[in-house]
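Worked example

This section walks through a single chain of length 362. The input is the sequence exactly as stored; nothing has been trimmed or padded.
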Amino acid sequence: MASMKVEAEQYGDRKVYSVAAFNRGVAGWLARLPTVWVEGEVTELRRQDRWQSVFFTLKDPGDGSCLPTSMPRGQFDALRLELGNGERVHVYGRPELFEARGELRLRALSIERFGLGDHLAALERLKQKLSAEGLFERGRPLPRFPRKVGLLTGNDAAAKRDVLTAITTRFPPAQVVVAETYVQGPRAAPALVTALQDLSAVAAVDVVVLARGGGSFEDLLPFSDERLVRAVASCPLPIVSAVGHEQDTPLTDLAADARASTPSLAARLVVPDADELRERLSQTRSRLHRAPLLLVERKRARLDGAYGRLRALSPRATLERGYSIVRDSGRIVRTGAELHEGTHVDVELGEGGFGAVVEETR
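Given that input, the structure is written out below as tokens.
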């Protein structure tokens, strides 16, 4: 189908283009430019199975210049690069204009990894250094019934609300002490360190949740800052790190005692489930009311068993089976040699008895 012409309306001696015509003209001009290679760091990588394209931003590590980039999902997946935020790449493509929004972007045709980006390489060096010092070996148990939960977060209403809602929904009596500070930018790391120290000193706070919503690779860099990582590792209280999304792994995740990828999981880690507690208490109460009856029944059963064994072993039971007991002057006779002819004996039966005279012994 032939493309629409770029035409202007004539207003006297002035030619005026509509926005659509202007964008169409720029897009047509960009389409005539050659394909080029562009180098940059991958940030804000977004891929969904239901999307036809994969989107990310190429960032110049020198001055922070950014270039939105897209690539058909099938082509991106076929490369099998397993790219992550912060990696430096060479992208081969051509510029294009998304006419509906007037947005310039690079239409990627191929991508090649160009080694780790500056930030990623620095983080890897820091990670190895701190790991060698043993800062990632914490794993203290979290308190089962914390008196108070400390929440260290930014002034992002959504992130704070998600964590608070998850905690209070799971355990309504929970007391949460909230400390808000910078969580992004150059001032974030020292501010977070100070806020963590202050929050740890609050009376009755037994555990701290360090929370921040999702963001770009650069947005989460403060949570890999060496000052904050060391503060987390040395904190006297157990810490749950709930920073970013599942695919993000800031170094605070490694230094903390536990990691939560969602607010609901953070709540599950720091407070018990009230409904489960009530059910367990109900079951325990029921067992306590039944316990005395069960104890009496067990003791009665043991007594009945002992009575049955004693009765089976008693002389009376033996007599009832057809045996008898012979006594000579009250002494039980066990052998024939103990008697002689003419001796008077008493014979006891299962019911009654009689006297006898020995006529013969054998």
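What to look for: The two ends are 132 Å apart (CA to CA).
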